Amino acid sequence: MERQIIKIGLLGLGTVGRGVFRILQENRESIQQRIGARLEIKKILVRSLAKDRGIELPAGILTTDLNEITGDPEIKIVVEVLGGTNPTLDYVLAALSNGKSVVTANKDMVAEYGQVLFETAKKYNCDLLFEASVAGGIPIIRTLKQSLAGNRIEEVFGIINGTTNYMLTKMTREGSDFAQVLAEAQAKGYAEADPTADVGGFDAARKIAILASIAFNTRVPLSKVHTEGITGITADDITFANELGYVIKLLGIAKNRPDGIEVRVHPTFIPKHHPLAAVGDVFNAVFVRGNAVGDTMFYGKGAGELPTASAVVADIMDAARDIMQGVPGFIGCTCFDHKPVLDIGETFSKYYIRLKVADKPGVLASVALIFGNKEVSLKSVIQKGATGKTAELVLITHKVQEQNVQDALMDLKQLSSVLEVANVIRVEGEDNGHA
């Protein structure tokens, strides 16, 4: 007996689009056995019909007319791998409004326009699935929504940008400076010609906004994510981190507190013994702490043609199952809480602070006094590179509120003996292995 055929429209045939096409072709028999239906790509939207795609395609499958996908009643699932938000958002809303389930890998669109997307999907009884929008092939969205649904999620944190992880790994291993490593990352294709989204922390901010929204059942606007990149990390910071027993990673951190939720992205000192410290190169890793399951870690390739396409195809299969069972939209938006997103000044961390100061008596005492006046307790103080004129002070604080540290730094900058606040980096991961 001929199995049901579920037809798909693919928006885009770039790197991930080609990966999706390849997996659906190469694994079609096992996919058919798993879901009880045959998946068939009917049309692929592209900008140019003339461009060489590097893969063999059936005649007539390409189109430049969106309506051939969104207006075709045979097409039940639309897969968006175009990226960006303009005009992609309009394309996806058109698909949902025509009753088609949507699978997307688009973190920008989900992070910025999740509310309207989910409202539209609910209105038209469609699935909106976006596993590939965070951490490539690592199944973290599905895990939070389904496998850990019985938990109260307390923390989600991890390395969710491969480009910056590659760069910080190189800086740590080789002692290279930021500019040198960025050039290498661009030459290898790990970083874009304009690397701002990665090195500025904005890519990771979109991803942690998505993860926090799901984990804490609260919509997290991108504007509420405190975001710092790695452009200020120097070889000196890498060296001091190593001497103190840490490595530096760009982390996305989300914490569920009784008074609200923390959502932030920034460079972070983590102890060398922490599992995240061993995650190198372009790999991603996400920790999830639930009140029932305890600590779990998800590790793998966070980008690339086939890892990302793997997550897309898994979502396609879920959407197909829901269509066959007559329950599209079965697991919709889970943002039923309205917890406040706390300001960065309300968060608590330990801190690494590097100061350039005049090398003369009394400087350390005046620095310590200012920190004490702002209730910032110092765990350790090391003097480095004294020349008779200048020196560096490297301080590690005990856990303290961010606002207290910022207030202390404002006062320090008024001291004539403090020549520069060279860097301030939060320290996490020392309390029972948690961020």
TrEMBL record:
UniProt-listed Gene3D superfamilies: 3.30.70.260, Dihydrodipicolinate Reductase, domain 2 (3.30.360.10), NAD(P)-binding Rossmann-like Domain (3.40.50.720)
Organism: Desulfotomaculum nigrificans (strain DSM 14880 / VKM B-2319 / CO-1-SRB) (Desulfotomaculum carboxydivorans)
Keyword line: Amino-acid biosynthesis, Metal-binding, Methionine biosynthesis, NAD, NADP, Oxidoreductase, Sodium, Threonine biosynthesis
Superkingdom, natural source: Bacteria
Similarity comment: family membership: Belongs to the homoserine dehydrogenase family.
UniProt protein name: Homoserine dehydrogenase
Gene Ontology MF terms in the entry: homoserine dehydrogenase activity; metal ion binding; NADP binding
GO biological process: methionine biosynthetic process; threonine biosynthetic process
Cofactor: a metal cation
